[in-house]
Specification:
It is built from 7 helices and 5 strands. By secondary structure, the chain is α/β, with parallel strands linked by helices. A 5-stranded parallel beta sheet has the order 2-1-3-4-5. Helix 2 links the parallel strand 1 and strand 2. Helix 3 packs parallel to helix 5 and helix 5 packs across helix 7. The longest helix is centred in the N-terminal third of the chain and has 30 residues. The chain starts with a helix and ends in a 58-residue tail after the last strand.
């Protein structure tokens, strides 16, 4: 009887140890997830491979997608997959594809702000360890239309007022999210020197962003704080809550 009890004790102990190990392994696996969500900027992140070990492990992104589509279709798909649990998430909000709403009056801009805020919230609700929001191109110019061919020919690589306004506005949304207890960072604009068509980043730019919250790859640059002088006072932005990643 004593031997039987001892056998049961050791068996239960072994099961408990295996279970604990499986839980630890699962947590570690989730913690290693790097997910990109959103439009073509998010779609451009390289997938993880032997030659790109720090690439994203999952992508839920497609070119030309707008903020409502990203919120209502792509983020729910990411949540259903389970990939968001403990993951570092790169979010490109779709703002570049929705400038007509941004400049469509106060009511449309307010609705757009709510949509992007909810993108961050839903990713948090899905278990993301950190949502890193990407800005639009520093040289973004909606007046050039959406033809990549035209934009490539006319790209001056010069910052625009439009790009500055949109990025400051995005940073303000992220600040509000952080102040309400959500896990988020603003990684700032795609530098004008790193774009090829006023919207999209060169492949080299993807090596400059933070691959994982709290960690950077060997090609990363120090992320300075946003300078207050570059942000319109009317936006009332809390600069201490927003971070810009830029190439020196």
């Amino acid at each position: 009887m004593s031997r039987l009890l001892n056998f049961k004790h050791y068996t239960l102990g072994a099961v408990a140890a295996i279970t604990a190990a499986m839980v630890a392994f699962s947590s570690t696996a989730h913690a290693q997830n790097r997910v990109s969500v959103g439009d073509s900027i998010a779609e451009g992140f390289p997938k993880a491979s032997k030659t790109m070990p720090n690439g994203v492990t999952h992508r839920f992104a497609k070119h030309s997608k707008t903020p409502p589509v990203i919120l209502n279709e792509y983020i729910p798909a990411a949540k259903r997959s389970g990939a968001l649990q403990g993951a570092s998430v790169f979010l490109s909000t779709g703002l570049s594809n929705f400038s007509y709403a941004f400049y469509g009056g106060d009511a449309k801009r307010t609705q757009l702000e709510e949509t992007i805020f909810n993108q961050i919230k839903e990713l948090n609700d899905g278990g993301a360890a950190m949502v890193m929001v990407l800005g639009v191109a520093e040289d973004f110019d909606s007046k050039k239309g959406t033809s990549t061919k035209i934009m490539k020919k006319t790209n001056s690589h010069q910052p625009t007022d439009e790009g500055a306004e949109m990025n400051a506005w995005l940073a303000n949304i992220v600040a509000k999210a952080v102040n309400q207890g959500l896990k988020a960072q603003f990684l700032g604009a795609i530098p004008a020197s790193e774009t090829y068509d006023d919207v999209h980043a060169k492949s080299s730019w993807y090596g400059t962003v933070e691959w994982n919250f709290g960690e950077k790859n060997s090609n990363s640059y120090t992320a300075p704080m946003i300078e207050e002088s570059k942000i319109p006072a009317a936006l009332n932005i809390n600069v201490t809550k927003s971070i810009v990643s830029s190439v020196k």
